[in-house]
Recover the amino acids of this structure.
């Protein structure tokens, strides 16, 4: 049996997830800028900071991937939101038709209820598939951010070994770490919205 | 759905419009939101078809608990047919709308939201620390109709007045007032029924200090375009269907 989540909570949840990811993608753009800045500094420092080159390139790549993924999740959330509202409308229609059925013995009403239920189930199945997809993409971003924080530590350690660029590079590593943490928090909030939906009746 | 911050000081005004996901044959609408402290007012929240886009867009800026008030300038479906859905997602909210339309608007579903009918003379509403005024615009076009004025931001939300019929991808702001008049002419002549009501509204609105006028369809008026519009509207003969 396919689980049917509350249509009202589904509509709210998908909109909340879209909101969290909208904010996360804004921070991912800042992360991308910080990564580009670090690339520029590393380039300027030349062979003295050769070890940081690979790390800064990794950051830049990670930031771009995060932006892309956050935008994809935003699109999925919006599609889920439309689906949730459509399901809500179908549910309301079925409720009204059931009331109608109590007042008439016309078979047409039963046929309409049957057809509406079929449409409702179809949307429900699609909805459940998309929710799972959303969860998986959120986990992917979360992993990116965990990786980003680990690499930020290596970046900071490497930066300590440079002389004239040390302060600047350390600050950059701190920024990247802070941005990654903020993104991770939005993703966690988005996941907790979904968890609440999945636990709802 | 496109979202833009129009005013940002101690409180904020946003516009939400040009929804690319809306069904093609329904008229494009502009929705607005005032945020002040922990409260907000969504003005003419729109039809049922754009509900999901509206909710998603609003939650990019504020959490759901902060959607505390709705305003419907009148009873039309493109203004408030989404009420039955808002009623479920923000059950503690208040709806401010012409009191005359209560029995009609409740047909959209209003079991939880508190219905606050505005008297014909208008009134005020405090959102957070911001006081907004309800400006009567009766018979323009609806028999009980209000606009919203913010004296601090100097913004007038003008409902269907200033509306234009335009393609989905048009700009949010007027670029050339003269060419824009062509897009507003038929709408005002056919939808607005009364020259007397028009003059009554103009007399009232000319006393307000307005820097931005926000219609529910079409483009936003800024600076001198507001006065240009008021002059243009004054000279326009409305209620033309009576001559057909």
């Amino acid at each position: 049996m396919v689980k049917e989540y509350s249509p009202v909570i589904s509509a709210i949840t998908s909109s909340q997830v879209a909101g969290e990811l909208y904010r996360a993608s804004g921070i991912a753009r800042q992360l991308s800028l910080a990564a580009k800045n670090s690339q520029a500094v590393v380039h300027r420092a030349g062979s003295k900071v050769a070890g940081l080159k690979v790390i800064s390139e990794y950051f830049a790549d990670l930031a771009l991937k995060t932006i892309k993924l956050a935008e994809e999740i935003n699109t999925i959330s919006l599609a889920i939101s439309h689906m949730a509202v459509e399901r809500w409308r179908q549910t309301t229609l079925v409720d009204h038709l059931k009331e109608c059925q109590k007042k008439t013995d016309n078979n047409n009403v039963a046929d309409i209820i049957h057809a509406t239920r079929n449409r409702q189930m179809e949307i429900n199945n699609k909805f459940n598939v998309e929710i799972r997809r959303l969860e998986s993409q959120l986990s992917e971003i979360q992993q990116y951010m965990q990786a980003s924080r680990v690499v930020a530590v290596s970046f900071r350690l490497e930066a300590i070994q440079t002389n004239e660029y040390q302060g600047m590079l350390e600050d950059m590593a701190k920024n990247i770490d802070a941005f990654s943490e903020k993104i991770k928090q939005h993703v966690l909030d988005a996941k907790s919205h979904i968890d609440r939906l999945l636990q709802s009746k | 759905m496109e979202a833009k911050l129009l005013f940002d000081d101690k409180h904020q005004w946003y516009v939400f419009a040009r929804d690319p996901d809306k069904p093609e044959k329904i008229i494009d609408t502009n929705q607005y939101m005032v945020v002040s402290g922990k409260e907000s007012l969504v003005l003419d929240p729109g039809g049922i078809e754009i509900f999901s886009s509206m909710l998603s867009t609003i939650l990019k800026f504020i959490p759901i608990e902060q959607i505390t008030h709705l305003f419907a300038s009148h009873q039309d479906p493109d203004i408030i047919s989404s009420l039955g859905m808002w009623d479920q997602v923000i059950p503690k909210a208040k709806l401010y709308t012409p009191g005359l339309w209560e029995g009609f608007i409740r047909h959209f579903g209003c079991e939880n939201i508190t219905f606050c009918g505005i008297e014909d003379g208008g009134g005020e509403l405090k959102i957070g620390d911001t006081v907004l005024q309800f400006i009567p615009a009766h018979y323009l076009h609806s028999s009980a109709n209000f606009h919203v004025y913010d004296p601090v931001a100097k913004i007038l939300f003008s409902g269907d007045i200033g509306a234009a019929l335009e393609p989905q991808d048009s700009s949010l702001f007027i670029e050339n007032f003269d060419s824009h008049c062509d897009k507003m002419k038929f709408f005002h002549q056919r939808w607005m029924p009364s020259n007397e009501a028009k003059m009554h509204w103009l007399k009232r609105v000319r006393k307000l200090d307005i820097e931005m006028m926000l219609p529910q369809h079409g483009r936003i008026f800024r600076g001198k375009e507001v006065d240009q519009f008021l002059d243009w509207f004054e000279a326009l003969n409305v209620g033309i269907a009576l001559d057909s």
Q: What stands out?
A: DSSP finds four helices and no strands in chain A. The radius of gyration of chain A is 24 Å.
